[in-house]
Amino acid sequence: MVVTESGVEPDFDHGCALPPLAWEACPGKGIDYPDLYRKHYGSLPTDWRVGHVDRLWTGHASDPEVRRTGASGGATSAVLIHLLESGRIDGAVSVKQGIPEPDQASWFIARSASEILACAQSVYVPVSVLDVLPHLVAGERYAMTCVPEQSAALRALQHGGDERAQQVKFVLGPYTGTALDRRAIRSLMRANGVVEDDAVTSLKWRAGEWPGYLEIITESGKVIRSKKVYYNVLIPFFVTQTSLQSMDFANEFTDLSVGDAWSPKFEGLGQGFSVVASRTPVMTEVIEEMMKLGKLELERADVLEASAMHGHMIDFKKRGGYLRNRWREATFRKAPDIGLDPEPLDFPRIAVELVISSIFTVCRTPLARWVMEHIPEKILGPLFNKLRLVWKGASKPAKRKGLRDLEMRVRVPDWKLR
Ligand SMILES: Cc1cc2nc3c(=O)[nH]c(=O)nc-3n(C[C@H](O)[C@H](O)[C@H](O)COP(=O)(O)OP(=O)(O)OC[C@H]3O[C@@H](n4cnc5c(N)ncnc54)[C@H](O)[C@@H]3O)c2cc1C
């Protein structure tokens, strides 16, 4: 490993200095997805957009408090609570905002329904959930919430025989589009006129009714509330490198993946709706048991319908992530290789990626971030949202073309051949 300005990064050329299993499971250099699909599911996915799916629904937790507290429909928290209360697990490893400081987040082992609910909502900054592994109690069984690269790493560890990883009996996780560099929080605060030494006392990423708003309260009593659609403006300025490199949107190695049900039908209804994808018969059984007990209100949906809700992000990761990684390599920078090449990939799609990547490159410079902080959010938020929708419409033909029939050419990742 090498320590850089942005944290600890794998040393690709000296990977063998790591224990072999740690190297195998390191998502920074890429995990061999074809190999992992075969080991974990016994086959390659038939649908490359969302991976292996046993059953898929849209809906929400039945308990209004769980639904309101959750990021979308509260299904993840409801399932964690049910796994605990039905004796299937001894603890739920989740992520909790506010540890060790209100503006930071960390893994947390929840052992009661109220502790699980205290961890609800999405945390949009990176959290090293797998750091919990040495802290698991021998003999105990856990559920764990992971973002895609962590789920894949955990599965690689489990299949490699790591006993602590094998204590995790259920993996749940969000569909994951983009996460933000932690510096985004201070930037938004500065943009709202908060001085540097005014500390954060509370931070919620998805407060209020779905889709919610970011709420920051400071020591001086200042309250910042920014609608989700407006604080999305932070994405081009503070998107993490991992988000740009990951090719897994639907969290393909969980037992249960949950995303926002972005569709006019559900958005019009408000209150919170999720897309809920079970990847294993065992998890499907848990979900059906919960439906019978009245703990979840779900309706069956097909993969096609659900994928249409996230077509933009699926393309951003599967084809965009691939192009961005290959361009990094072409410019002598390191990038993960997961052994999958998307097809089709035509010129219009490549041109769209050139525009997207140029925007990210410019926006992530200190100057662009400074300019962003000096434009009032009430102007920048709606303006960004408008531009985003215009761009989404204009790039839709190129981004959606061929997505329905997306295929992946499977090969051995380069790092395995070295
Ligand atoms: C970084 C990030 C990006 C996302 N991008 C998208 C997107 O583009 N499109 C989309 O449809 N959905 C996205 N989601 C998922 C969405 O925000 C909700 O998390 C999801 O719909 C689950 O909602 P819920 O109400 O079931 O979750 P809840 O009931 O609120 O439970 C969420 C659980 O996940 C845990 N958790 C939260 N953040 C993290 C994290 N960073 N790492 C590990 N565990 C965590 C919580 O501790 C909690 O246990 C993203 C989530 C994250 C964290």
Compose a concise summary of this entry:
The chain is α+β, with helices and mostly antiparallel strands and 418 residues long. It contains 19 helices and 15 strands. The protein has a domain at 2-179 and 241-309: Aspartate Aminotransferase, domain 2 (3-Layer(aba) Sandwich), CATH 3.40.640.
Describe the structure.
Pfam families: FrhB_FdhB_C, FrhB_FdhB_N. This is Coenzyme F420-reducing hydrogenase subunit beta. There is one protein chain. The chain has 418 residues and is α+β, with helices and mostly antiparallel strands. It has a domain of 247 residues: Aspartate Aminotransferase, domain 2 (3-Layer(aba) Sandwich). It has an eight-stranded mixed beta sheet. A hairpin with a 4-residue loop joins strand 9 and strand 10. Helix 8 runs parallel beside helix 17 and helix 15 packs across helix 16. The longest helix has 24 residues. It is globular and about 50 Å long. 43% of the residues are buried. Flavin-adenine dinucleotide (FAD) binds next to helix 4, strand 4 and strand 11.
